[in-house]
Amino acid sequence: MFKTEILTGLDIDAPEERVWAVLTDLGSYPEWNPMIRRASGELKPGATLTLRFHPAGRKEKVYRPRLLAVEQNRELRWLGKPGVRGFLESQHYFFIENAASGKTRLRHGMVFRGMLVPLLGRWLETSTREPFEKMNRALKVRSEA
């Protein structure tokens, strides 16, 4: 199976617990998140989230991914199926790590798998990276406030 990964990240001048609290407060997403404009669901492995993706200049899409990992202050990861199984699937993840001097390192990415990856690889990169980076910066601002 073909695979590609888009990885973004940055350091946040706030403790891991604060970054986690902002990231997992789904109800506050409309206040700060430029990519996921609304989010709801129970944060536990196996649960289904409802996410309204609406980055600036793009058509709104609603996804219902299944949570794969919810590890407090460490990892949030879900499985999305934007296409037909085997043709295009994705895992969206956030990893929160302790960085030097009381900062937190955020690694935010997505792994795409499927037969369409070679055909869509460049488009997946260009359509994913900028909204992820905008969300990262917004998470940083909110966490540091």
Description:
A hairpin with a 5-residue loop joins β7 (89-98) and β8 (104-113). 28% of the residues lie in helices and 37% in strands. The radius of gyration is 15 Å and the shape is globular. The protein has one domain (3-144): START domain (Alpha-D-Glucose-1,6-Bisphosphate, Chain A, domain 4), CATH 3.30.530. The model has no long low-confidence stretch (mean pLDDT 94). By secondary structure, the protein is of the alpha+beta class. The chain contains 3 helices and 8 strands.
Mean pLDDT: 94
Total count of domains: 1
Largest sheet: 5 strands, antiparallel
Specify the CATH class: Alpha Beta
CATH homologous superfamily assignment: START domain
Largest beta sheet: strand ordering: 1-8-7-6-5
Global outline: globular
Helix content: 25-40%
Query: So how many helices?
Result: 3
Order of helices and strands: EHHEEEEEEEH
Straight-line N-to-C gap = 43 Å
Radius of gyration: 15 Å
Q: Give the structural class.
A: alpha+beta
The third-level CATH topology is Alpha-D-Glucose-1,6-Bisphosphate, Chain A, domain 4
How many beta-strand runs? Answer: 8
Q: Please give the CATH architecture.
A: 2-Layer Sandwich
Low-confidence stretches: none
Features:
single chain; 145 residues; alpha+beta; Alpha-D-Glucose-1,6-Bisphosphate, Chain A, domain 4; five-stranded antiparallel beta sheet; three-stranded antiparallel beta sheet; 3 helices; 8 strands; 37% strand
